[in-house]
Amino acid sequence: MLFNPRTYDPAQFDEPTRRLLRATVDWFESRGKKALIDTYIDRAWYADFLEFAAREGLFAEFLTPSAADPDKRWDTARIAELNEILGFYGLGYWYTWQVTILGLGPVWQSENEAVRARAAKLLAEGHVMAFGLSERTHGADIYSTDMILTPDGEGGFTATGSKYYIGNGNVAGLVSVFGRRSDVEGPEGYVFFAADSRHEAYHLVKNVVNAQMYVSEFRLEDYPVRAEDVLHTGQAAFDAALNTVNVGKFNLCTASVGICEHAMYEAVTHAHNRVLYGRKVTDFPHVRRELTDAYARLVAMKLFSARAVDYFRTASPEDRRYLLFNPMTKMKVTTEGEKVIDLMWDVIAAKGFEADTYFDKAAKDIRGLPKLEGTVHVNLALILKFMGNYLFAPADYAPVPTRLDATDDAFLFRQGPARGLGAIRFHDWRAAYDRHAQLPNVARFREQADGFCELLLKHAPSKEQQADLDFLLEIGQLFALIVYGQLVLEQAELTGLTASDEGGDVLDQIFDALVRDFSAHATELHGKSSTTEEQAAWALANVRRPVADAERAAKVWARVEALSGAYEMQP
């Protein structure tokens, strides 16, 4: 179930996609582990990777929608696949691709045909892009920007101001920059425009991180913004910023999956071939438990992320369910990635610090993903907006199939106004749980989910508690687990995982972890200072032990054990 370069065959895609994905894997493998590690340690800019991508037309093929070039498409399924591959080899390679996606967001949403054509040409020439939104003082708070555009009297502007934490800002052929007019107050003054990092009025200040990637601070000084450089104005500029993040935020989940997969091969191989106190490390019960838990959580990450792709690709003005599953991929999948790395690190211990391992890099880089494109707290607060309708007001939708068709996901660039989240409806979450009720831990988790609904109906957060974000975020964690489990179950069913006894064992092991996680968050809720006596009593009453099954655990462990020696990167 894990990506393995030795056996990788993306047969689910069309021939051009298969060729590019396989060529990417082959490039990294032929380059070898030593080069991967040396450039990471030396913080060397990944010019060789960008040269490869330009030569193959990789970014141009995957990131040009058909509206800009009818021979290309923006296909979230294959974008997710490449996220995983790039994450597998290193966060930096994924990052330059990710911020190119963000930089293109305002462009592909724009009706400015000249800039769209310019962006398509730059991609075809091998350039990368950048997304100039955040600032040192305000972060990504788009209500407050100090990038000021002053009318030049000829229909254009001059832009002055700084942007901070802007990936690819050192080399981007096009930078989508967010600012505000000096002569217009409020939202109508917002402007998104296209800038070029090679322009003399564009001043690169520094790389703000100590890493291989270049995360820039840049400053514009009287930068000329022609009328033909303007992408969006007013409320449309604000919406373009949020909708771009909607598209780009999704990519963090599959990058996290790729990082964890590579690290798992290293960790299991090391542990399984190491002898301590006269015993193989993997003979210790606690080691087996931790590695089995890590494996189950990683499989769940893959299942949820893959199913979320289908909802993105099926989205429409009438079906905006993706707007819940998107912050879930960003918040939940990436924090699960941290848990997976921590579980393995507990096993391999000092080995996880060694410079010649991939794991050493994974342990550092996995921390970044939950903190990019909005913090965990921001995304949890966003998830809470959907809770009422999701749990209590299901609507009828046609079943969403697996979406691997070679079509353009055009809706992502015409999402419309970034509002109305509380009105979005969902299909009945209980159906996926009901179809898997024969699995003991799915049934046990369903008891907890039903209990959570009872909490909200009988002991709903008071007005004061709703203003207490510390309390409310724990409610969000409990709710997120129910959403997470639903899509894990749907994808397991669609991929045939539950059709076999062995697949059912893995799924039950996943819900063993979710039962424990729900109990842990219920315990946290019990301890909050603002929790009422009734809510505290509910919390203790809904702590559950997962259903133990030694035979099931042994079968899942056999899958983990088989990873030993299954993959090692070429020297």
N-to-C CA distance:
24 Å
Strand-residue proportion:
5-15%
How big is the Rg?
A: 24 Å
Mean pLDDT: 96
Largest beta-sheet characterization = 8 strands, mixed
Q: What's the helix and strand layout?
A:
Layout: H1 15-31, H2 33-41, H3 47-56, H4 58-63, H5 76-89, H6 91-109, H7 113-124, E1 129-132, E2 148-151, E3 157-167, E4 174-181, E5 190-195, E6 202-207, E7 215-225, E8 230-233, H8 235-249, H9 251-272, E9 275-276, E10 279-280, H10 285-313, H11 322-348, H12 359-365, H13 376-384, H14 387-392, H15 430-434, H16 440-458, H17 463-466, H18 469-494, H19 501-527, H20 533-541, H21 550-561
Parallel strand pairs: 1-4, 2-4
Antiparallel strand pairs: 2-3, 3-7, 4-5, 5-8, 6-7, 9-10
Summarize the structure.
The protein is of the alpha+beta class. It has helices at residues 15-31, 33-41, 47-56, 58-63, 76-89, 91-109, 113-124, 235-249, 251-272, 285-313, 322-348, 359-365, 376-384, 387-392, 430-434, 440-458, 463-466, 469-494, 501-527, 533-541, 550-561; strands at 129-132, 148-151, 157-167, 174-181, 190-195, 202-207, 215-225, 230-233, 275-276, 279-280.
Written description of the protein model:
Belongs to the acyl-CoA dehydrogenase family. Keywords: FAD, Flavoprotein. It holds the Pfam family Acyl-CoA_dh_1. Residues 238-386 form the Acyl-CoA dehydrogenase/oxidase C-terminal domain. It is a single chain. The protein is of the alpha+beta class and 571 residues long. The protein has helices at residues 15-31, 33-41, 47-56, 58-63, 76-89, 91-109, 113-124, 235-249, 251-272, 285-313, 322-348, 359-365, 376-384, 387-392, 430-434, 440-458, 463-466, 469-494, 501-527, 533-541, 550-561; strands at residues 129-132, 148-151, 157-167, 174-181, 190-195, 202-207, 215-225, 230-233, 275-276, 279-280. Strand 4 and strand 5 (190-195) form a beta hairpin. Helix 10 (285-313) packs antiparallel against helix 11, helix 10 crosses helix 18 (469-494) and helix 16 (440-458) runs parallel beside helix 19 (501-527).
